[in-house]
Amino acid sequence: MTITGVLMRYILPPGSGHYSTIWGLDRHEWGDIHFWISAVFFSLLAIHLLLHWRWVMSVVAGQPREGSGFRAGLGIIGLLTIIALALSLLLTPVEKDLTSRGASIGSTHKYEDTEIRGSMTLKEIQAATGVPAAYIVESLKLPESTSVNEQLGSLKRKYKFEIIDIRDTLNNSSIPV
Q1: Where exactly are the structural domains of the chain?
Q2: Is 114 exposed, middle or buried (0-12, 13-18, 19+ CB in 10 A)?
């Protein structure tokens, strides 16, 4: 749980502006794994405590039992295995997909420096990129009556497109850079 938490928080942070994976899994997929590991862990912990309640009580009372050295050795081996797996995740390089999900950091797209936010309008995008708003409207298959002064966030909710679709439209436009 700790290692998946570290992966999500520091190695695959939210809002990083690009699509990164480790072992082919993105941040959200690691979040699912993190959740299920914690659910299984706490379930197993509860079962373990129930099955070993007499042992827990004898340890609390200070009564050692035979074979506790062998069990401690197995516990150490298990712990070392978990640590090795965790380290392998931290040492695995992060894979960045800069094309399929439309990331702009380090890409060779024409409008990589243009930040597109949901609070922007088509008119503002036209001013920043030189790509006509009418071209964007046509490419996104929006109605011709779409106002160029309406915010992208509102248009996005209304017509079910993503900001990445606008970036793709800009990058596929034939307007010279």
Answers
A1: 2-97, 122-172
A2: middle
Tens-digit pLDDT profile for residues 61-110 = 775 566 666 777 777 888 888 888 878 777 777 666 555 444 444 334 45
Q: Report the chain's terminal Cα–Cα distance, integer Å.
A: 47
Six token digits for residue 140:
């996104």
pLDDT for res 13: 67
Q: Could you tell me which of 158, 126, 120 has the C-alpha nearest to residue 142? A: 158
Closest of 174, 111, 168, 113 to residue 140, by C-alpha: 168
**Which structure tokens are listed for 111?**
């409008």
DSSP-assigned letters across all residues of the chain: -HHHHHIIIIIS-TT-SSEEEBTTB-HHHHHHHHHHHHHHHHHHHHHHHHHTHHHHHHHHHT---TTHHHHHHHHHHHHHHHHHHHHHHHHSPPEEESSTT---TT---TTTT----TT-BHHHHHHHH---HHHHHHHTT--TT--TTSBHHHHHHHHT--HHHHHHHHHH-----
CA distances from 78 to 42, 43, 47, 50, 71 (A): 17, 18, 18, 21, 11
